[in-house]
Amino acid sequence: MISYMEMCGKRDRVEDMEVYAGTDVVNEQLARYGVKFGIYKNNEFKEQLFPFDMIPRVIDSVEFAYLEKGLKQRVKALNLFIADIYGNKRIIKDEVIPEEFIYAGSGYLPQCEGIVPPKGVYSHISGIDLVQSKDGTWYILEDNLRIPSGASYPMIARSITRRSDPSLFTGKHIEDNRNYADMLRHTMDYVSCGGHTVILTPGRYNAAYFEHSYLAEKTGAHLVSGHELIVENDHLYFIDYSGRKERVGAVYRRISDEYLDPMSFNEGSVIGIPHIFDIYRKGNVALINAPGNGVADDKGIYYFVPKMIKYYLGEEPILNNAPTYLPFYKDDMKYVLEHFDDLVLKDVAEAGGYGVVFGNKLTREEKARFIAMLKKEPRRFIAQEVIDFVDIEIMEKGEFVPRKADLRAFVLMAEEPMVWKSGLTRFSRNPDSFIVNSSQGGGFKDTWVLSQ
Amino acid sequence: MGIISIENTDRLFWLGRYTERVYTTIKIFADRFDSMIDFDEIEYGKFCESQDIPNIYKSREDFSQKYCFSLEDENSIFSNLMRAYDNAIVLREEIGSESLSYIQLAVYAMNQASLSNAPLLGLQKVTDNIAAFWGMADDDIDESQIRNIIKVGKLIERIDIYSRLGKDPDMLRREARRLSNRIDKSQIRYSMKTLAHVNYLVQLDDVPYDTLTDAVERLVVDTN
Asked: How close is the nearest chain A Cα to the Cα of B175, in Å?
């Protein structure tokens, strides 16, 4: 990665201040277009603006080519893994992954056994979280294969930034990231079983509702709620204003597996579509992403992804996992207890930056309580070395200040995996924090990938 | 032609109604406010009666503040603007981000107006944004049905308010004519008999305003 300031070479302080002023202009525009995310505080829904920082993360073409190769490899292996788990289960039989890690995780859905989705694609949209350490090494932090969100933010920020300050982009050979909607549309069309394509939203009180509606607008898909769809004669239909039924062939669903179909999963779900899972099983509709993908993005399974790559592809992993330990294994438990203060522990059932504990931040009593819990439920946690990841400059009150940032890369799967030449760079606004999630006050940047 | 759900048809219709309600009530409020400059009291009681809203206000100042800006007052202009916003925000893929942005800007303008020392000028920015929304919707939305549903909502609301305020029959006739030319193009369900009745009522020399208000409210069936 190169810094934006390095890239711009001779920019002087006056121009830097123009960038600062530009940040306000772009944030004003983002507010105008309702670029928000929802958050529940004290049981009350609130919409918050997602703070944007104008200084982009810049990744040069050589470095991105390396990331692209590694990301494609990883997502290919993850797709093969999901197919194997709901199919022949070779990886378990060959004792590469202990079966406890498959069946004890909440992401495994027995209902998906034996199902092969349209065109054999399971993870159509994968959000892979990476960080870069200070020595320049990239590490994968997390695979998100259920309903990863975030692509819409750099997409709209790029459109606005280009309008607000065209000179920033002149002559810099930056890959255009506004093609995400085309890539997504192609991905959806590739697996469609015929008819309309819809984006299924739980509604405007969902945290990512802006993204649902924006992607619907940009892809030309219809944004729908569960009650606007109906299963009849083994097919899915959208009911229009006149009562006419229109066939639907692909559903980019932005609701969780458990709420997708009250007849197959959570029977109390009022946002799902009764019997949609039955017709999915019959191959009459594509569900994007496929139900049951959680089996592959469980934090416990993350540990095994490098092994999957070797097992399914016969290749060495190109991208590294962060050094991870599974207290489930006796040796790893010993290491974790001996190096507790140097590690970050993560609850495999949590997401969004929650359930993350830094060993050295606990009091003696908290540590004792945590270790007791760890010994009682070793499968519930993973431990990772704390990666001192690279700081990225942000603008704050007229000053450049360093902050921790990660990168969510998006890999879309159609005939072949496609890596979006951009990504969501999220940063912590708190100087002492490694937590970058928007729900915890983080902001975002555009990610520039250079084309030469 | 794209596909539009019953729910979105409803939302488009109400988006038209609420934007018109905000636009017209701000204009009426501004007129009344102007009269306060020369006369001591604003006749807000009569205004509430004409709009069929409860007079919960304690004074002229209380009316001016709450009727414009209080979100706790369900009949306030701001509450109606938020209803427009609530409909618009779930219609992004139908009306487009550009059109939607003007509703968002109207909400910001309303917030600013509520804090302003010159609220009338602040409210003018709200109407500017609503007018821009209508213009952008007309220019930017491909689907004629979507444009027509919004316009039908807007025209019905306008006739409703004008009728409640006992406006000049010529104004009512003009709006009724526009509505008659538009309503079939929107493909929303309505009562042809009631439309004929509305057209008959506005042509009378002595327009029976209460009857007209009632008729226009009943015009669109199955759209609540």
From this structure: 26
Three-class secondary structure of residue A265 per DSSP: coil
With 0-12 / 13-18 / 19 or more C-beta atoms within 10 angstroms meaning exposed / middle / buried, residue B58 is: exposed
Which CATH architecture best describes the domain A323-385? 2-Layer Sandwich (3.30)
Judge whether A223 and B91 are in contact, CB under 8 Å. Answer: no
Its pTM stands at: 0.89
Q: Provide the H-helix boundaries in A240-329.
A: 257-260, 276-281, 294-297, 299-302, 305-308
Of residues A192, A65, A194, the one with CA closest to residue A124: A192
Nearest to A107 by CA among A261, A302, A344: A302
Identity of the amino acid at A410? F
Residues of A in contact with B2 (CB under 8 A): 222
Residue identified by tokens 């179909």 is: A261
Provide the shortest C-alpha distance from residue B56 to chain A (in Å): 28
User: Which chain A residues have a beta carbon less than 8 Å from that of B188?
Assistant: 241
Q: Residue B108 and residue A240: Cβ atoms within 8 Å?
A: no
Assess contact for A218 and A210: CB atoms under 8 A: no
Cα A319 vs. chain centroid, distance in angstroms? Answer: 17
pLDDT at A11: 47
Which pLDDT score is estimated for A36? 85
In tens, the pLDDT along A173-195 reads 999 999 999 999 999 999 999 99
* Residue extents of the structural domains in chain A: 4-316+388-449, 323-385
Closest CA to A125 of A236, A208, A242, A57: A208
Tokens of B20: 């018109």
DSSP structure string for A380-391: GEEEEE---BPE
**Is A189:A252 a contact under the CB 8 Å cutoff?**
no
Interface predicted TM-score (ipTM): 0.81
